[in-house]
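assembly run, all chains below
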Amino acid sequence: MIRVALFEDIKEIRELLTEAIQNSEGLFITGAYANANDALRIMKRDRPDVVLMDIQMPGISGIEAVRTIKANFPEIQILMQTVFEDNARIFAALCAGASGYILKDASPERYLEAIVEVAQGGAPMSPVIARKVLTMFQGQNPVSPKEEYHELSQTEQKILGHLVKGLSYKLIADECNISTSTVNFHLKNIYRKLHVNSATEAISKALRQKLSN
Amino acid sequence: MNRIYAGILCVWFVVEWKARAQVPIVLGASKAPIAVGLNCTVLEDKKGTFTLHDVQKAAFGSITSTIHNSGYTESVIWLKINAINTEKHPWFLEIDNPRLNDITLFAVQNGKVIYTQQLGDALPFETYPIPDRIPIFNLPLVAHQPYTLYLRAVSTEDLKFPMTFWEEHQLYAHLAGRNLIWGIYFGFILLITLYNFFLWFMTREAIYGYYCLYVLFFGAFQFSLYGFGYQYVWGNAAFNDLSHIFFLGISIFFLAVFSLAFLEPYKRFPRLKTVMKTAGYVFVIGFPICLIGYDSFINVITIATGTIMVGIQCYCAIFMAWYGSKAAQLYLVASGTLSLAVLVVGMKNLGWIPAENQDYYLMGGSMLEIVLFSLALGYRLRSMQLEKLRQQQLRDEISTNLHDDLGATLSSLTLFSELNRRKMQKQLPELADTFGLISERSREAMRLVREAVWEINPQNDTSDEWIDRMITFAQETLGAAQIEVELLMDDALRNEPFSIERRRSLFLFFKEAVNNIAKHSGATYAQILFQQTNGILKLVISDNGHGFEVTQTTEGNGLKNFKKRAESLGAQLKINSNPHSGTSIELAFRAPAYLN
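ok done. output:
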C-alpha cells in the first residue's frame, strides 16, 4: 500500500484527486492540503511514501517545500505537479529533491501511474531533463569538494545518454542487455545521487541563483 | 584765465600732432611680421567722392581699437600708414579681410604717387599678384625712404582692417600654414557631412539628414566668408558678394529644423508651432528678397534674424533642460560652445579683447560644437533603443503573465474534466465520454499555450532544445495512441545552424506527420530517424499501419501541406505507402552547414 500525501490549492481538484487516489488499488491517501506551510508537521504525522506537490502554490513555494521535506525525510519520494514544462524550474525541483514531475493536464491514469513510478524510486526523465542531469554530473559544478560529490557509474551514464536520445525503458534495456527493472534500479540511484549532490551547500546555492534570475 | 586757455590749446595741439604725425612703422632688420595695430589713421568718405589729392590734405582720425572696424557701411574708408623700409628685401602688406570688394593701395613719397595697386573681390582672382584669397599688396619700397601708404576701401561686407607687414619668406610660410589649418577644417566638415549622410541613408531618420545639411551649409558659409569661394570656385561673380548670406541663411534654416527634431519642444511649447510656421513663411519670402536686393545693410538684418532664431532655440532648450530633459542639456552644451565662440568673435570685433585670429576661434568653436552634437545624436539613439527595449520587456511581461494564468486555468480545467470522466466511467458512460471530449479539447488548447510560451521566450531562439521538443512530442502523442515508438535522433544535430523559421517549419512538419500516424494510421509501431550522412540531412518518419493511397489523397489538404513545407525548407519529399509495409515519409536536404 503506497501512502500518498497531496498538496493542491484548488478545492475541486483536491477533492476529486483524493477520490481518484482513494479508489485505486494499492494507493492510500493520508491527507490533502491546500498549502505547504505546515509540511514538516504533516510529514511527521502522515508518514507518506509519496508526496504530490504543486510547483506553484500560495505561501511557501513548492520547491522550497520539497527541499525542506527531503532534508528532514530523505526516504519520502516527491512528485512535482507543473503547468508548463519549464525545464529550468523542473530541473531545479529535481535537484531540490523531487523524483519526477507530471503535467497538470495529464490524465488521472497517468497521475496514478506516475505516483507508482516515483514510489519505486524515480520517474523516467524527459530527454531535456536527462541531458541537464548528465551535464551537471559531467563536472559543470567544480565548486563542491570531491569527497561529498557522488559520481555516476558507467552504466548510469549510458542510461542517461539513452534517455537523452528519447529511448523508452524497454529499448534502453535492450541496448544495455539488462532487464527493465534493472533500468529502474539504476534510475533510482541516479535520482539519489542527484539529490545527495544537490544537498551540498555550494550546488544548491548556485541553483537558487539560477532560479532567481 | 589765459593760462588755462593756453593749456587747453597746448593739449589739443599735442593730440592733433600725434594724430597727424603717426609714428612711422619701421620695416626693419627683423624678418618677423609687423602688425600695423594702432599705427594708422582713418577717414570716412561718406559719399565716396574723395580723390587721393583731397585725402592728402584732409585730417585723419586715430583708430580706437587694435583693428579698425567700420562695420557695415556704404561709405568709402581711407586709411593712412607711415612706413620706412630699412632693409633691402621686399615687404608685403596683408589685409586679412577677403570680403573687401575694392581696396586700392597708394604708395606716396614726398607727395607723389610712386606705386599703386588695386585688389579686392570685385576683381577677377587672376589679377591678384599673390594668389591668395586675402588681399596682399607687394610693396616695392626703396630702402631708407619714408613712405605714406594710403588705402581706399569699400565693401558691402564688414570693413575690418587687420593689417600686417610680412617679409617674403615669412609670408609664404604663413600662407601655407594657414591653408593647412583650413584644409583640416574643411576636411572635418566634409567628413561629418558624409558620415551623417550615410547614417541618414541607412536609417532613413530625418534628423541625420538635417544635421548633415546644417554642417554642409555651415561649412559652405565659412568657405565663402573667408574667400575660398572667391579663390577656387566662382571668382568675382555677383554671387560672391552675397554667397555668405546665402549659405548662412540655409544653414540657420537647417539648424532650426534639426533643433526642432532633436528637442521636440512642441509638447512643452504648443504655441511654438505657430511661431515656427510664421518664421518659415518669413524665411521663404524674405530670403530671396534679401538675396536679390543685397546690400550692406542686409548683413545687419541677417545677423539680427540669426540672433533671434538662436535666441528662440536657446530659450526652449534652457527651459527644457531646467526641467531635466537630458537631450536638452546636451543640446545646450553643444550649441553653447558655438555661441561662446561667436561671443568671443563679437568681443574681438568690438575691440574689447585683442582682435587677432578671429577666424580660428570661430573654426575651433564650430568644430567643437559639431563633435558635441554628434555625441548628443549618439546619446539620443541610445536612449531610443533603450526605450524600445523597455517597451518590449513590458510586453513580454504582460504576455508571460497572460500565458501563466491561461495555462494554470486550462490545466485545472483539463484535470477537473478528466477526474470527472473517470468518476462517471461506470455509472454514466455517456457523460464520461462528454467529459473526455472536453478534456481532449482543453488539453489541445493547453498544448498550443505551451508552444506559444516556448516560442515567445527569447532564450529559446537559439536553444538547442528543439530536437528534444520533437522527441517529447512524438513520445507523448504516440504514447497516448498506444503506439510504440523508436527514436533514432542524432544528438549532434542539436547544434546544426538552423534558422528560427526553418526550425519552426520543420517542427510543424514533424507534428503533422506524427499526428497523422497517431490519428489515422492504425499502426502499432513507429520509427523516427533524424540523421546526417555525408552532408545530407534525413528525417524519416515511418509506421506499420494500413497506409493510404498516395495518388488518391494527393489532392487532399494533408499532402499539399507536406509538399509546401518541404519546399519552404528546400528539401526533397518522398512518400511511400502501401497496406503491407505501412507508410514512410522522408525529408532529405543538404545540411545548413553546407549551404551558403
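Strands of chain A lie at 2-7, 27-33, 50-54, 77-82, 101-103.

Chain A has a mean pLDDT of 81.

not gonna interpret more than that til we talk
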